């Protein structure tokens, strides 16, 4: 070998966060694509729908304050969003898998007034509805939204990505229920569709409603646990597009922010 050439940059990674209703709106908009806000004063209602396009990319900055250097990840898009809901009264985790156009090392911050400070995660109240009926005592809910971004959008003459367009969106997840009701297994075997609604409320105000208007159950595992012989059911599901709503997922966020 007499020479080497640098190949294309493949920049991305994962962020693990706790859900905070006042600040999650921007991330949800960039994961779903469509956002509409109503209200002339707080609290505001933000309607977020899964759509075929995504907003322009985010800029994310990582600060190394001891050496006064800042990594600026530009053109970030959310490839995969995970929401992990524990039983009622718990903190909700957010998993973000990101792809970015590129990264720069800067000597100063781009937006110092937006720097986040670490606080204790908040606990929220959680409820679940299936087919319009309340499901008692969910033990856990996991929801994943995958945008299947086009990863190889590089151009000649540049090491950075120039295109990160979305592919076919997939919304799926699983439920962990403490119930002996075999109705879910019957719906799975019959391939019957239903709806799921996840309601999150904060003790001090604010809420997040996640509506999957049409889902099918794709698998089920039942087990008996504990000395009392309690039955737990792990049920996986896949969201499908609802023709009436025009999407496979709808979120309604209520908080004190005038925009997301």
Average the pLDDT over all residues and give the rounded result.
84
Largest sheet: 15 strands, antiparallel
Radius of gyration, rounded?
Answer: 21 Å
Total helical segments: 2
Order of helices and strands: EHEEEEEEEEEEEEHEEEE
- Would you identify the regions where 5 or more consecutive residues have pLDDT less than 50? none
Broad structural category: mainly beta
Helix fraction, binned, reads under 10%
**Net shape:** globular
Beta-strand proportion: over 45%
Kindly, what is the distance between the CA atoms of the first and last residues, rounded to a whole number of angstroms? 52 Å
Number of strands: 17
Protein model, in words:
The protein is mostly beta strands and 260 residues long. It is built from 2 helices and 17 strands. The strands form 2 sheets. It has a 15-stranded antiparallel β-sheet that branches. Strand 11 (153-154) and strand 12 form a beta hairpin. The chain is globular, with a radius of gyration of 21 Å. The N and C termini lie far apart (52 Å).
């Amino acid at each position: 070998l007499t020479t080497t050439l640098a190949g294309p940059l493949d920049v991305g990674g994962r962020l693990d966060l706790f859900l905070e209703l006042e600040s999650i709106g921007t991330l949800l908009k960039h994961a779903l694509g469509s956002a509409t806000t109503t209200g002339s004063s707080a609290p505001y209602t933000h309607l977020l729908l899964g759509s075929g396009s995504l907003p322009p990319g985010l800029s994310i900055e990582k600060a190394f304050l001891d050496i006064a250097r800042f990594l600026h990840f530009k053109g970030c898009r959310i490839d995969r969003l995970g929401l992990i809901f524990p039983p009622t009264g718990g903190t909700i985790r957010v998993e973000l898998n990101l792809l970015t156009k590129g990264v720069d090392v800067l000597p100063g911050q781009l937006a110092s007034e937006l720097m986040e400070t670490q606080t204790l995660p908040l606990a929220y109240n959680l409820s679940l509805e299936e087919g319009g009926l309340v499901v008692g005592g969910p033990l856990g809910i996991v929801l994943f939204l995958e945008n299947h971004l086009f990863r190889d959008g590089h151009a000649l003459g540049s090491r950075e990505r120039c295109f990160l367009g979305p592919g076919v969106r997939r919304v799926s997840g699983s439920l962990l229920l403490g119930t002996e009701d075999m109705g879910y297994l019957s719906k799975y075997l019959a391939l019957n569709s239903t709806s799921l609604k996840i309601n999150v409320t904060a003790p001090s105000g604010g809420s997040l409603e996640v509506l999957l208007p049409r889902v099918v159950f794709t698998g089920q595992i039942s087990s008996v646990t504990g000395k009392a012989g309690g039955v737990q059911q792990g049920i996986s599901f896949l969201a499908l597009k609802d023709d009436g709503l025009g999407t496979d997922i709808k979120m309604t966020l209520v908080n004190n922010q005038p925009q997301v």
